[in-house]
């Protein structure tokens, strides 16, 4: 099966508006009110998986707080999509690697909507490291600040305001389980997210707060052309058993299951949406 056209973006986490073709974020089915009255914070919610989850949550009745770094065009498009579903969105731009910023997100979410029911930690960055010995400490630190410190900062910002039946959903990755020779520091952070999720699930189970994760495989998001050279983008996902990269709207239903009552007997778990890549033979 064909891959994507060769392309590259020179900035992280990338822009959905610049991709060819655009990722598919449209939900598959009409909503059924599974998140009616809920408020969800989604980091990296402006594009890719985050956009697809945001639109699906809105269709199911949730109000959204969309956290993004600086991709205002993508964020405004996501707001319009949420409003088209009959819901509301608060857009907040900033760096999740900054603890003060994350605290402000929690505070503004409560001021705007009066409650927080769901936190989806999804913002991420990744970089191809061809020469591991040459990787600078600051480069590695930046990936950890975004991918794992940012998760922890957001959890700290909301945890005291979550009630029983609240949900925390973290975005892990197939690379946490299989590794990746060129994305070593990224894989390290995703492994840490697995440990974080399982630890928090055990810690907060008695309070009725459920903590799970989704572990995507190759999904067509802005992070792909922003990370890999054009030839790798062209073949991205074609080596999976299903022969193609996944679309964001093929991942979003896993987040919905974990966010709504369908997932009320799950905590500390991972849902793998990866075209059959994991486990490897």
Automatic annotation (TrEMBL):
Leader peptide range in chain numbering: none
Biased composition (Polar residues): 1-13
The entry's keywords: Oxidoreductase
One Pfam family per UniProt: adh_short_C2
Annotated segments matching region Disordered: 1-31
Molecular function via GO: oxidoreductase activity, acting on CH-OH group of donors
Family to which the UniProt record says this protein belongs: Belongs to the short-chain dehydrogenases/reductases (SDR) family.
The protein, known as: SDR family NAD(P)-dependent oxidoreductase
Biological classification of the source: Bacteria, Pseudomonadati, Pseudomonadota, Alphaproteobacteria, Hyphomicrobiales
């Amino acid at each position: 099966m064909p891959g994507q056209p060769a392309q590259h973006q020179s900035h992280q986490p990338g822009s959905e508006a610049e991709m060819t073709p655009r990722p598919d974020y449209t939900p598959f089915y009409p909503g059924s009110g599974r998140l009616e009255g809920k408020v969800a914070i989604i980091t990296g919610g402006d594009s890719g998986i985050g956009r697809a989850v945001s639109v699906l949550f809105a269709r199911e009745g949730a109000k959204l707080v969309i956290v993004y770094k600086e991709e205002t065009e993508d964020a405004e498009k996501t707001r319009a999509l949420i409003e088209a579903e009959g819901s509301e969105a608060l857009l907040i731009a900033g760096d999740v690697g900054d603890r003060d910023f994350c605290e402000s997100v929690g505070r503004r979410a409560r001021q705007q909507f009066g409650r927080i029911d769901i936190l989806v930690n999804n913002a991420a960055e990744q970089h191809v490291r061809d020469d591991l010995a040459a990787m600078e400490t600051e480069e590695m630190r930046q990936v950890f600040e975004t991918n794992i410190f940012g998760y922890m900062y957001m959890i700290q910002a909301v945890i005291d305001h979550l009630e029983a039946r609240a949900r925390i959903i973290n975005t892990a990755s197939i690379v946490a389980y299989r590794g990746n020779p060129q994305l070593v520091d990224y894989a390290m952070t995703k492994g840490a997210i697995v440990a974080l999720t399982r630890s928090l699930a055990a810690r907060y189970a008695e309070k009725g707060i459920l903590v799970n994760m989704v572990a995507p495989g190759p999904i067509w998001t802005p992070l792909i052309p922003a990370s890999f050279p054009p030839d790798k983008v062209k073949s991205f996902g074609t080596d999976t058993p299903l022969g193609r990269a996944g679309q964001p709207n093929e991942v979003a239903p896993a987040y919905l299951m974990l966010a709504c009552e369908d997932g009320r007997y799950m905590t500390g778990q991972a849902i793998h949406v990866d075209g059959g890549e994991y486990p490897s033979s």
